Amino acid sequence: MLGGIIYSAGLIVAIIVVIYIQYRGFAKQQEIIEGETSIVFNYRDVFGPMGLEFLGLSIILIWIVPYGVLVIAPLGLILSILSPAGRITWAQTKVPRTMVCVFLISMIMLGSLAPVSQPKSPDSWGNPLLTENPNAPLWPASQQYTWIMAPSAGELDLEIIQSISIRTPHQLGVFGSASSSLNLASLMGLEQSRLHQAIELLDDELSFVRLNPEEMALTPIPNQETHRYVSNTLGIDEEIVIRQYELRSLSIGSNKEGVKVGEVLCAATSTWGGELQILVIIRPLGHPDLTTDRYAEELVLDWLSA
């Protein structure tokens, strides 16, 4: 929550800085013009009619609207150029509007680098094998823990688990945050780089096949986008956003779509202030739970209770 408050405060400061710069320019112009009737500077006119009000409302809406700034910014731009009056206002206030856009984008980029909380780490999983991922993108800020759940003798019930905390630069609220963030990650292919480390670990553990992290693909599995996890013992009854993928090796066989070698389950929850907690479970083909426990009930419940 604190990170989100600082983030919002930075956006407000950016608006104030632009108003101050415009005021300084106005004051110098007034000094040059002598003998003229003094004109009072009106800060509300800096961004045009209702411009300042829209900016203030936008900062509030980032906490409420799913997809946040990705919806608010295009909507504001479209509304401002639809009418002739709006286009005239853009011509009259082009400099301050451009400045505030640059400042706001800069603050969003910087705010997304604020430290995140530690990933969820259930005691029953023990200490994570790895506490960082060198393949993860530098932006936005994130932290990742990784475990290997060793298989039983002669079985393929190996599981690689990643618990991730990550900033959501596009919105600060919880409404639709988990779903929108996973959709954006899938659209931009961001999950591919994070899986590089997990695939290397999977390759080390499997003896019957060689997996090249550079030649792997994630294929979404058309399925439900939420799943209800319930445990009376743990006091949990939550509808969680999930995504499922086929893990395909492009280096095995001749099929251009690759050969399925496993499945990936992602579960996500969000918190106020622009932070997402993600659980990633990678299981190889032949894992018994791929047919009996597709949603990894026990592991997700452990993670939710941490």
Whole-number radius of gyration? 25 Å
Q: Indicate the low-confidence ranges by residue numbers.
A: none
The gross shape turns out to be elongated
Biggest pleated-sheet summary: 7 strands, antiparallel
Strand % is 15-25%
Number of domains: 2
Counting DSSP H or I runs of 4 or more residues, the number of helices is 9
Structural class: alpha+beta
- Beta strand count: 7
**What gap, in angstroms, lies between the N and C termini?**
19 Å
Helix amount = 40-55%
Q: Whole-number average pLDDT?
A: 84
Order of helices and strands: HHHHHEEHHEEEEEHH
Helices and strands in order, then pairings?
Elements: H1 2-32, H2 51-61, H3 69-82, H4 84-92, H5 94-111, E1 142-149, E2 159-167, H6 177-188, H7 190-205, E3 216-220, E4 226-231, E5 236-249, E6 259-271, E7 275-284, H8 289-292, H9 297-305
Antiparallel strand pairs: 1-2, 2-7, 3-5, 4-5, 5-6, 6-7
Task: Tell me about this structure.
The structure is a single chain. This protein is α+β, with helices and mostly antiparallel strands and 306 residues long. The mean pLDDT is 84. It has helices at residues 2-32, 51-61, 69-82, 84-92, 94-111, 177-188, 190-205, 289-292, 297-305; strands spanning 142-149, 159-167, 216-220, 226-231, 236-249, 259-271, 275-284. Helix 1 packs antiparallel against helix 5 (94-111) and helix 3 (69-82) packs across helix 4. Strands 1, 2, 3, 4, 5, 6 and 7 form a 7-stranded antiparallel beta sheet that branches. It folds into 2 domains: 2-111, no CATH class; 123-305, no CATH class. The longest helix has 31 residues, at 2-32.
